[in-house]
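Ticket #4471: structure export looks truncated?
Reporter: QA, pipeline team
Priority: medium

Steps to reproduce: submit the single chain below to the structure queue and open the exported record.
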Amino acid sequence: MGVGPTVIAALATCLAGAAAFFALANRATRRIHAAFGPKDVEAALKCVLDDAQYHDDFDLFLTWPIDDPYFESIRKRCHEILRTCAPAKRGEDISEDGKERIRGILRDLQART
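Actual output as written to the record:
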């Protein structure tokens, strides 16, 4: 027995709905991250410096551009740090040197705000 046109239409509708949902969610996330302020950036930097296993705030911070040029420059510097400071041990996200460089950025941010 074959798949009928009704089933195909229902499947296509579901897929289109899911695609629209994720497109809208991404647009909302992009807007939120574009408006990041000092507390948001500070929280993201602290997240990667913690010994916690999950760095979701930091990962999202790196993913989306920020409208403020100063905070965007911090985001770009963090990208560069991650690119150049490979972890020394397996299972780590960043080397101690990289963490120290991010600590420096965090101190500068805290002194500025």
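Status: closed, not a bug. The export was complete when the record was re-opened. Leaving a note from the reviewer for reference: The mean pLDDT is 83.
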